[in-house]
Amino acid sequence: MSMIKIENLTFAYPTSGDYVFENLHLQVDTDWKLGVIGRNGRGKTTLFRLLQGLESYTGTIVHSVSFDYFPMNVPVPQQSTEEVLQQLCPMRETWEFICEFSQLDLSTDILARPFQTLSGGEQTKVLLAALFLGEGNFLLIDEPTNHLDAHGRSCVAAYLKRKKGFMLISHDRHFLDACVDHILALNKETIECQSGNFSSWFVNFNHQQEQELERNQQLKKEVLRLQQSMRQSANWSHQKEATKIGPVDKGFVGHKAAKLMKRSKSIEARRKKAIDEKAALLKNIEKHEPLKLVSLPYSAGPLLSLSDVSLFYDHRRLCFPISFSLSEGERLFIEGKNGSGKSSLLRCILDSSVSYTGTIKRSSHLIISYVPQTTDHLNGTLRAFIQEHQLDETQFKTILRKLGFARQQFEKKIENYSSGQKKKILIAKSLCEKAHLYIWDEPLNFIDLYARIQIEQLIQEVKPTMIVVEHDQAFKQTLATRVLTLETNASLFNTDPSC
């Protein structure tokens, strides 16, 4: 057992005048399985970079361990998966890769395939295998569940459960419960660490929020009372001062008024300080402000229908024939193992850019809003993004503010945003678009818990027509009206969202 000690840590990126951390004190036992949570942009990944010594800072970070970070960089993704693993784990042999693959439910066939041709979930599992085959350093694991199906998440959680200690960034509640024993929460104004899994922390957090809300109501009343008292005191002092004016020298009155004015200003200064201190306490609440979406109605029959559609990649059939139709108000969730063709099916519906057989019928004049799985294409300024996609700037920025963006972040380059903030840009764009059908490919990747709750509540209220690929089981069980399960040797269509 050893400790990671952080004292008086202060850090801000050169491109921003805002502190990510200011006078941070933290102590972590390296035997802990520590889950790190918080709003996007709060500094979770930045903390990992600071621990690795990748950023300059003031204060001290003391540790006696070395760190391994996930996801690691793949220098030549065009190489075969086995060659990539040999570069990342030069001391390991092929049989060890195969053993690791069996625990992560990966086919050994992908060892011969170019790494860049693997699905997002397959790439994630391969890189996790490389991490697990490392030298046994303290693990800094950044969002390992993105692109992983439910079975993959279960496998990874079970594997992490057996590890000695790590720090894990994740917004998946079930995943955290399965593998962590401590929670580090980067709250709005504070940073706290407590023993237990996510569920136990969340119970305590909600209790604290209730107390905070009650306290805030009291503080608001107290601030209002102090402000009214200040105004009354100021008016009274000015009235006393005015009695000095006249043809007769009122020395006594003037002297008394001066003393009262001085006393009044002193009281006013103390009250103003009290107001500032109390107003500052009103900032600790995590707000879940409601989002808005205006979908277009479509009542003239099915919006979309597929008949005996089989998908192909590099002459390889991904799944057996798919048939379904989608009517207004339905929310179809597509699930299946990594590599079963979920994202390919979405692209096929969008523009038929994927090789397929069978029939796809889209209703005439059908307007689709799409959230892609990746954010790699995002760069430049937010203003340029708004202009490129012809968005309502006020509406777009209002949505981002509700999703946790600070105003000063609007001036940053998009490439300097966190992965979660980039995904929120794509979601905000989709929410600004009036469409008949919303197709979202893993929309919750990197998205924090609070934003997930906001998005979930919005969809429950508006009930737009949607096709969604998403591995968050709670999200799916709450919102899905139908579930399509893709199998490599069968395609099953269910009507029960809990399937």
From TrEMBL:
PROSITE patterns: ABC_TRANSPORTER_1, ABC_TRANSPORTER_2. SUPFAM superfamilies: P-loop containing nucleoside triphosphate hydrolases (SSF52540). Residues 4-213, 304-498 form the ABC transporter domain. InterPro entries: AAA+_ATPase, ABC_transporter-like_ATP-bd, ABC_transporter-like_CS, ABCF_ATPase, P-loop_NTPase. CDD domains: ABCF_EF-3. It comes from the Bacteria. Signal peptide: none annotated. Pfam families: ABC_tran. The keyword Cell wall biogenesis/degradation does not apply. Keywords: ATP-binding, Nucleotide-binding. The keyword Transport does not apply. PANTHER family: ABC TRANSPORTER ATP-BINDING SUBUNIT, DRUG RESISTANCE ABC TRANSPORTER,ATP-BINDING PROTEIN. This is Lsa family ABC-F type ribosomal protection protein.
